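Objective 1b: paired records.
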Amino acid sequence: MQHNLGDFIRAHRERITPDRAGLPAGGRRRTPGLRREELAQLCDVSPTWLTWLEQGRDVAASSNLLARLADVLQLSAAERGYLFSLADRIDPQASATHEESQPLQAMVDAINAPAYVLDRQWDALAWNADALALFGGWLDVETDAPLRPNLLRFMFRSAAARGLIVDWDDRASRLVAEFRADIGKHAGLPAVAGLIAELSQGSAEFQALWTLQDVVARDGGLRRFQHPAMGELALTQVTMHLAKRHDLKLVMLLPSRQPYSYSRK
């Protein structure tokens, strides 16, 4: 994979001309593209390090450096996404645009059960009417609200969560361990790190659970709720990552042995 990343960077370095990158042409060149030293200068890294990266050596490229490379090389959205995919990094500028959110909403609307989509920091990007009926204290936000509804904020900052979720203490403990496993090496991303700091300051329970360093897989399973209008519910959670956006998760709460119903308005 490192060789694929190096080959991709080198190919695009050789395609972009100095004038497009904001540099003078500077005499005769073997190739019309940027020299390795010029790309290194524009990205504020050493030429040696860039050489190793292009050669496929075992050097780590941070998300911020990849973003600089993508900007200097003037990569398209698809090329930028491919660059971050090869490096197994998350683009710090990646977010669901309005155009992306429309198919997400259509997808969850087509599911005849509570369904929602979470991003890297577990903000809800789309949800259907059944999810809104179940999680009214979480998902009932204005479309122009400054913050997206976040599952961890709901769990640790909302009194409604403690009344809705059966065995809240056990679920809260597991949720924090699942979140740590889910974010993995991306805990340093600004949005994720900011959320962790906010919850640690605002919730002693979250801070205590976070310091335990527990990690469990987010595999789904039985979820039990005590809904104020629908009574006791037992649902089976299924979580899937989206093919083109591995940082997004589709969560569905499917019927379990105990029947339940929702009324769409």
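Objective 1b, second protein:
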Amino acid sequence: MARRVFLHVGAPKTGSTYIQNVLWNNQETLRGAGILMPGWAWAQDQAMTDLREVEWRDPRASYTWERLAAEVRKWDGDAIVTNEALGGATAEQAARGVAAFGSAEVHVIVTGRDLWRTFPSMWQQSVRARNKWTFSEFLTAVEQGRFETFWEMHTPNRMLKKWGDLVPPAQRHLVTVPGPGAPHDTLWQRFAGIAGIPDGLCDLEDPTANPSLGAAEIEVLRRVNGALGDRFPHRTPYQLVVQRHLVNAVLKNSGNEVRFGVGLDRAGWVAEMAEQQIAELRDYPCHIVGDLDELRPVNMKESSSPDDLDDSRILQAAIETIVGMLEHADELTRQPNVDGVRALDLLKIRATGKIRRTLKRVASSRR
């Protein structure tokens, strides 16, 4: 039975990708130090979709929460489970998730970021997950109370209530995300200190950073999502095709020069929500690593919105994206052979096979 289990349940866009990349890049090193990362990144994601019983779980997924828990129960050291979407679990699902680790000492870790930076990051993440609403539509829905999912999954208050209440106060941890200008490894040092990861054990270089897209690039993606119709339905097909070949291969490497954020017309509302959040967390018994003041927005200034871009700027970004896609396609054709077959030819073979299977199904249906 594992001695301690550290459950990092979110929130998204709070440096979770950086923390996870460091953990997975150092999986074997951590294991040698007595700290288990059960499964692999995709396995823990599949376990999350199983625990939450989401309708968009990949039907081919085989890794379950019980399978993950069983691996942890066989370990005699510490274990870390991390997936930022766990924060979206219901109270009942969270209770089932914690109970699966038996008598292990379970610690719940939640990361929190100030709302001024969270709003644009969360909207962008939703577009990168196939949503097609505008930035203004998103903000209005949150402001009018029509999108409670934001508060459930992207603020530490509710996640701590759902997950933290299941363990003693000393085993509830809130890590605040430092403001701009802090040393790059500050967030990691805060997380590692909770999990008992020795300083200097892990290589902190992250070769798979998750940069934000600029206003024009994210608007191109939003419009592509709208044009896709029912092609590449959420979630796995979209990740395998659009996320891989458009977002990761092209858009992330574009200029991304025009940054965007919440307009000053909403600054008062954001500040009010932040103060309410901080007050609630001060009254909640948990271990705070960082400073609650870091959840208070600073340097609020007027920002552009993707909604305000004129079509000529969007067209320019779209053309640059097409050029990037062509370069990406050319790079794929130059990849080493796979068992004697070029990558592009392999794609053609697979596509031809799909067409043949479709024709056979049509022919059979007509008999």
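The domain at 4-211+263-302 is CATH 3.40.50.300 (Rossmann fold). The chain has a mean pLDDT of 91.
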